[in-house]
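Q: C-alpha cells for this one, please.
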Amino acid sequence: MKKAVLKIAVVMVLAMLVLGACGDGGSALVGRWTSEPRMTPGGVSFISTYDFFPDGVGDAGGTPMTWSVDGNRLVTHISGTLTHSAESRTYTFQVSGNTLILTPSPSGEPINFTRSN
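A: Here is the predicted structure, written as C-alpha cells:
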C-alpha cells in the first residue's frame, strides 16, 4: 500500500512539474510554429521556426532551448553552442487558432507564426 501511494505521489509531482513548465497559457504554445524568414535592420535573421514541447524544452531554429510562460509573457533560453551564444529572450504572445503573434520585449515589431503540425 505504501509503495502504491508513493508511486501516485511521484506521478502527481511529475505532472505538476510538466504543467508548471507550460504555465497557464503555455499549453496553447505546444507544437511547431513557423514564420517567413526575416532580417533585422542590422542584418541578423529572426528565428523562423519554434518547436515548443509540453515539458518546457524545445527547439529554436535548430538550436535546443527551454521555455516558460507567465501570463502572456514567454521567456525562451537558448544554451550556448559552437554557432550560437547563450541568450534569453522575452516576448509577449497571443495565440488565436493557428496563429501565434510574438512581440519581443520591451519593444519590437510583432512576428506572426503559423502552427505547422
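A few notes: The two ends are 42 Å apart (CA to CA). The chain has one helix and eight strands.
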